[in-house]
Amino acid sequence: MLSDTAKGFALVFCSIALLPLSLDFMQDHDDAENEFERECDPVFRALTGNNSAVDAEICSQLEEDRSTKLILFTISLATFVITGLIGMAMVLPINQNQT
Question: What pTM was estimated for this model as a whole?
Answer without folding.
Answer: 0.80
